[in-house]
C-alpha cells in the first residue's frame, strides 16, 4: 500500500517548469561526455557556449524571482483523484479539492511548541493532527519498512527525508481520515520544511489554507528540547542533533515560511509565553477562520 502510494505520489506531481528548471540547472554536474580538448576552441564554439551559459543563467534567475507557491486549479471532488495524467506538459492535478479539504501547515523551529498547540486545536476545532515527524518515526519503526534505516539516519542527523516518502505518508494518512472517519480538516505539523516539499504537496495533494508560524528564540527552543530529551526517547533530542536541526531550520525551512508570506498565508504567533497564553492567541486566529 505504502509503496503504491509512494510511486503514485512520485509520479503525480511535476513542479512547474520554471521552478523545476532552477534545480537541475543549479545541480547538474558540468560534463560534455568528452575529454577536454587540448587545443584552443574556435570563436564560434566559444560564442555558442557563452550564449548557452547566459541562457541557462537567465532561466535560473527568472525562475527564482519572487519564488512563491504555484497556484493550481482545484478539482471539485474531495475524494481521491482519478489516475493522474501527467506528460510533463500538463500541470498536475491535486489529489483533493481545497474547497472540501482544509490543510493548515503548522511551522516553527524545533521545540517551538507546534505539537503542544496542535493537541489543543484538534479537539476544539475538529481537526486531525498529522505530525510529519511522527509519521516518519512510525514508518521508521514499521516492521518491513524499506525506508526504516534511511529515515533513522535523516532524523538523527536533523536532515530532511526525501519528499516523496513524507508526502506519501501524509497523503495516505489524510485519505484514511477521510475514508474512515469522514474528517476533512488537517493540521499538518512540521511540514513542509523545504521548498520542494511545499511545491510538490500543493501541486499534487492539496493547496493549504493557512500557515501558522510559531516564532520562538533558539535559546528557548534549546531549553525545551533538552528538557523534553530527558524522557522523550527521541534520537534527535540531544545537543548535537539539536544544533543540526537549528541550522536546517534557518537555512532550509525558514525560506518556506517566507515564500508563504509572499502569498499572505502566514499568521505568526510568538511561542515564548506559557502554553495557555500562546493558545489564546491561536484561538483568535482560528475563531476568525474556522467554525468550531
Ligand atoms: N509555551 C510553552 N511553554 C513552555 N514549554 C512549552 C511550551 N510549548 C511547548 N512546551 C514544551 O516544549 C517541548 C517542545 O514542545 P513540542 O513538542 O510541542 O514542540 P514541537 O515544536 O512540536 O517540537 P518538534 O518540532 O521537535 O517536534 C515540550 O516538552 C513541551 O511540553
Ligand atoms: O517533513 C518532514 C518532517 C520531519 N522530518 C524529519 O523528522 C525530524 C523530526 O521532526 P519533528 O517535526 O521535530 O518531529 C526532523 O528533524 C527531520 O529529520 C523530515 O525529514 N521531513
Automatic annotation (TrEMBL):
<dbReference type="InterPro" id="IPR006266">
    <property type="entry name" value="UMP_CMP_kinase"/>
</dbReference>
<feature type="binding site">
    <location>
        <begin position="111"/>
        <end position="116"/>
    </location>
    <ligand>
        <name>ATP</name>
    </ligand>
</feature>
<dbReference type="GO" id="GO:0005737">
    <property type="term" value="C:cytoplasm"/>
</dbReference>
<comment type="subunit">
    <text>Monomer.</text>
</comment>
<feature type="binding site">
    <location>
        <begin position="190"/>
        <end position="193"/>
    </location>
    <ligand>
        <name>a ribonucleoside 5'-phosphate</name>
    </ligand>
</feature>
<feature type="region of interest" description="NMPbind">
    <location>
        <begin position="131"/>
        <end position="161"/>
    </location>
</feature>
<feature type="region of interest" description="LID">
    <location>
        <begin position="227"/>
        <end position="237"/>
    </location>
</feature>
<feature type="binding site">
    <location>
        <position position="137"/>
    </location>
    <ligand>
        <name>a ribonucleoside 5'-phosphate</name>
    </ligand>
</feature>
<feature type="binding site">
    <location>
        <begin position="159"/>
        <end position="161"/>
    </location>
    <ligand>
        <name>a ribonucleoside 5'-phosphate</name>
    </ligand>
</feature>
<keyword id="KW-0665">Pyrimidine biosynthesis</keyword>
<dbReference type="GO" id="GO:0005634">
    <property type="term" value="C:nucleus"/>
</dbReference>
<feature type="region of interest" description="Disordered">
    <location>
        <begin position="66"/>
        <end position="94"/>
    </location>
</feature>
<comment type="function">
    <text>Catalyzes the phosphorylation of pyrimidine nucleoside monophosphates at the expense of ATP. Plays an important role in de novo pyrimidine nucleotide biosynthesis. Has preference for UMP and dUMP as phosphate acceptors, but can also use CMP, dCMP and AMP.</text>
</comment>
<feature type="binding site">
    <location>
        <position position="234"/>
    </location>
    <ligand>
        <name>a ribonucleoside 5'-phosphate</name>
    </ligand>
</feature>
<keyword id="KW-0963">Cytoplasm</keyword>
<dbReference type="GO" id="GO:0006221">
    <property type="term" value="P:pyrimidine nucleotide biosynthetic process"/>
</dbReference>
<dbReference type="GO" id="GO:0033862">
    <property type="term" value="F:UMP kinase activity"/>
</dbReference>
<keyword id="KW-0418">Kinase</keyword>
<feature type="binding site">
    <location>
        <position position="197"/>
    </location>
    <ligand>
        <name>a ribonucleoside 5'-phosphate</name>
    </ligand>
</feature>
<dbReference type="InterPro" id="IPR027417">
    <property type="entry name" value="P-loop_NTPase"/>
</dbReference>
<feature type="binding site">
    <location>
        <position position="273"/>
    </location>
    <ligand>
        <name>ATP</name>
    </ligand>
</feature>
<feature type="binding site">
    <location>
        <position position="245"/>
    </location>
    <ligand>
        <name>a ribonucleoside 5'-phosphate</name>
    </ligand>
</feature>
<dbReference type="GO" id="GO:0006207">
    <property type="term" value="P:'de novo' pyrimidine nucleobase biosynthetic process"/>
</dbReference>
<dbReference type="InterPro" id="IPR000850">
    <property type="entry name" value="Adenylat/UMP-CMP_kin"/>
</dbReference>
<keyword id="KW-0067">ATP-binding</keyword>
<keyword id="KW-0539">Nucleus</keyword>
<protein>
    <recommendedName>
        <fullName>Uridylate kinase</fullName>
        <ecNumber>2.7.4.14</ecNumber>
    </recommendedName>
</protein>
<comment type="similarity">
    <text>Belongs to the adenylate kinase family. UMP-CMP kinase subfamily.</text>
</comment>
<dbReference type="Pfam" id="PF00406">
    <property type="entry name" value="ADK"/>
</dbReference>
<feature type="binding site">
    <location>
        <position position="228"/>
    </location>
    <ligand>
        <name>ATP</name>
    </ligand>
</feature>
<keyword id="KW-0547">Nucleotide-binding</keyword>
<dbReference type="InterPro" id="IPR033690">
    <property type="entry name" value="Adenylat_kinase_CS"/>
</dbReference>
<feature type="region of interest" description="Disordered">
    <location>
        <begin position="16"/>
        <end position="41"/>
    </location>
</feature>
<dbReference type="GO" id="GO:0005524">
    <property type="term" value="F:ATP binding"/>
</dbReference>
<keyword id="KW-0808">Transferase</keyword>
Amino acid at each position: 500500500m505504502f509503496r503504491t502510494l509512494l510511486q503514485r505520489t512520485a509520479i503525480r506531481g511535476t513542479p512547474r517548469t520554471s521552478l523545476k528548471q532552477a534545480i537541475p540547472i543549479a545541480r547538474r554536474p558540468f560534463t560534455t561526455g568528452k575529454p577536454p580538448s587540448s587545443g584552443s576552441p574556435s570563436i564560434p564554439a566559444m560564442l555558442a557556449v557563452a550564449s548557452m551559459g547566459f541562457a541557462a543563467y537567465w532561466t535560473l534567475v527568472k525562475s527564482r524571482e519572487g519564488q512563491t507557491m504555484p497556484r493550481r486549479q482545484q478539482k471539485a471532488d474531495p475524494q481521491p483523484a482519478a489516475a493522474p495524467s501527467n506528460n510533463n506538459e500538463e500541470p498536475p492535478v491535486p489529489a483533493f479539492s481545497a474547497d472540501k479539504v482544509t490543510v493548515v501547515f503548522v511551522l516553527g523551529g524545533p521545540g517551538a511548541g507546534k505539537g503542544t498547540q496542535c493537541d489543543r486545536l484538534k479537539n476544539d476545532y475538529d481537526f486531525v493532527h498529522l505530525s510529519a515527524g511522527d509519521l516518519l518515526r512510525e514508518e521508521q519503526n514499521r516492521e518491513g519498512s524499506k525506508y526504516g534505516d534511511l529515515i533513522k539516519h535523516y532524523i538523527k542527523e536533523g536532515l530532511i527525508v526525501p519528499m516523496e516518502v513524507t508526502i506519501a505518508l501524509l497523503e495516505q494518512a489524510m485519505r484514511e481520515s477521510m475514508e474512515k472517519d469522514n474528517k476533512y480538516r488537517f493540521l499538518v505539523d512540521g511540514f513542509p520544511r523545504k521548498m520542494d516539499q511545499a511545491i510538490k504537496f500543493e501541486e499534487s495533494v492539496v493547496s493549504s489554507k493557512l500557515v501558522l508560524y510559531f516564532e520562538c528564540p533558539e535559546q528557548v527552543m534549546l531549553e525545551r528540547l533538552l528538557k523534553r530529551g530527558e524522557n522523550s526517547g527521541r534520537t534527535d533530542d540531544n545537543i548535537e542533533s539539536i544544533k543540526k536541526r537549528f541550522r536546517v531550520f534557518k537555512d532550509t525551512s525558514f525560506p518556506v515560511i517566507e515564500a508563504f508570506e509572499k502569498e499572505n498565508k502566514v499568521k505568526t504567533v510568538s511561542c515564548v509565553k506559557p502554553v495557555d497564553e500562546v493558545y489564546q492567541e491561536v484561538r483568535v486566529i482560528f475563531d476568525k477562520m474556522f467554525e468550531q
